[in-house]
Amino acid sequence: MEKEYDLVVIGAGPSGIIASIKAKRDGKKVLLVEKLSQIGVKLKATGGGRCNLTNTLNKNDFMKSFGKNGRFMTQSLNKLDFNQLIKFFKDIGVETHIPDGFRVFPKTHQASTIVDALKNEIHKLNIDVLYNNKNIKIETKDNSIKSVLLDDTKYITKNILLSTGGLGYPKLGATGDGHSLAKELGHTITSLYPAMMPLYTKESWVSFCKADTIAKATITINMKKYKKIKAQGDLIFTNNGIRGPIVLDFAREITPFLDKYEEVPIFINMVKGKNQNDILNHIKQYNSSNQNATIKDCLKDILPLSVLEQIAILSNIDIKSSFKKIDGKSKNIFLQNITNTPLTIVGHDGFKMAMITRGGVSLKEIDPNTMQSKIINGLYFAGEIVDLDGPCGGYNLQWAFSSGYLVGDSI
After folding, report:
1. What is the pTM of this model?
2. 234 and 243 in contact (C-beta within 8 Å)?
C-alpha cells in the first residue's frame, strides 16, 4: 500500500511539530511520524516541567550565545524570532509571560500547557500522525528524496524532515536514529557529547556544602589554552560534584575535554567576581571596627559557613582564628583559594542525564536559508539533530522552533 505526502516529518519534538503546522497551514499534505506513543515527550520535560520557551535577547546577542556557528541560524530567526514565537503560541491559546525580564514561560509554568496546545493545533489542522514507528527506511533517486518506508507501508514524498533530536535522555526516546539515517544518506555526523548536566569532582569536600547555593559564581578552566572559556550563574554543590544553571551551561564545554584529558581542572569564583585585594580590604574594614573578629566573622556575609570552612581546611588555616595572626604565606593561599577555588572535574552521567547533545549533522552540509541538505534534494534538518547547541535559558527551544518553522516555510 502506498500513500503520498508533500512532507513527511520524522520526529515529533518542537521542531518537527512546528514544521508540520507551518507546512499544513500553507496547504501542504503532511505526515508527522513519532517513534513513541505520544508527541512532545521531551518537550514536556524541559525546564523541570516549566518549559522556558525562549528569551528576550536580540538576534545578534542570541546567535553569539551559540558560539562561532551562531550566525548559521540567521534566516531561521528572521522567520521566527522570540516575538513571533510568543505570538505563535498566543494564537493557539497559550499566554506567556517574562517574570524575570529575560526568560519566557507559559503563564501556567507547565510544559504540558505547551504540548496540549500543539496537540490541539495538530488535531484542528487534521495533520496525519503516526505513532510507534521505529523501522524507517528512506529511499532516494538521483540524489533526491523519493519515499520513506515505515514498517510495511511506503509513503511517496519529495520532502523529508529529520527532527529526531539528539542522544540526551534516552528514557524519553532518544536513540540517535536520526543521526544514523543522515549518515546512511551521506551526511557527516560530528563528534557527539552530552551537555547540560551535573558534573563529578575529584574533591570530596563538596559533599559538606551540598545544602548551599552560590549565586553569581564564575567558572573558568584552569588549562593554559582554554583559560578564556568561562560561565557565570548559580552554583549548587552535590554529594559528588556540582550542578546548577552555571554547571549546565559549562558542561557543554567540559565534556569534550574530559574525553581528551580525563580530568579538567577548574577555578570557581564564589564571591561575585571579587579579587584577592577586594577580599583583603573587606577583612581589614571589618577588623577596623571589630578588633577581635575571627575569619569566620569577617567573611560570614561573603560565603556560606560550610563553604568557608572547607576553603579554610583547603588552605590549612583555622577559621576561628584572627586573620592578622596568620602568617603571610597562609594568608595568600587563603585569599587565592577563596577567589579562585580549585576543583577537578572527572566525570558525568553521560547521555542519560544530558538535556542537550553537543554535535550532530555537520552545518557545512546544510543550507541555512532553508535547512535543506546540500547532498540530498528534499532532505531537511531542524533542531537538536544538527551541530548547533546553546546555553540554558530558552536558547535551544527557540532554535528548535525557529529551524522547524523555516523548514515548514521552505517546502
Report:
1. 0.92
2. no
* Residue of 276, 399, 395, 402 lying closest to 331 (CA atoms): 276
What the block records as the C-alpha cell of 204 is: 570530596
Alpha carbon distance 290, 284 (integer Å): 10
Which of these, 105, 108, 32, lies nearest to 398 by C-alpha position? Answer: 105
Residue 38: phi, psi to the nearest 5? -155, 160
Dig out the grid coordinates for 52 from the structure: 522556558
Pairing of strands 30-33, 128-130: parallel
Q: What are the angstrom distances between the C-alpha of 220 and each of 212, 274, 313?
A: 20, 14, 22
Grade residue 355 by pLDDT with cuts at 50, 70 and 90: confident
Q: Distance of CA 262 to CAs 41, 226, 229, Å?
A: 33, 15, 18
What DSSP string describes 149-180? EETTEEEEES-EEE----SS-GGGT---HHHH
- Phi, psi dihedrals of residue 4, rounded to the nearest 5°: -125, 135
Q: What is the pLDDT of residue 288?
A: 86
Which backbone phi and psi does 61 adopt, to 5 degrees? -70, -35
Tell me the backbone φ, ψ of residue 90, rounded to 5 degrees: -60, -40
In percent, the amount of the chain with pLDDT more than 70 equals 99
Radius of gyration of the chain from its Cα atoms, rounded to whole angstroms: 25
Residue 65 DSSP class:
T
Domains of the chain: 2-192+359-410 (3.50.50.60), 198-348 (no CATH)
Question: Tens digit of pLDDT for each residue in 214-238?
Answer: 999 999 999 988 888 999 999 999 9
Q: Give backbone dihedrals phi and psi of 199, rounded to 5 degrees, phi first.
A: -125, 150
Residue 145 has phi, psi (to 5 degrees) of -65, 135
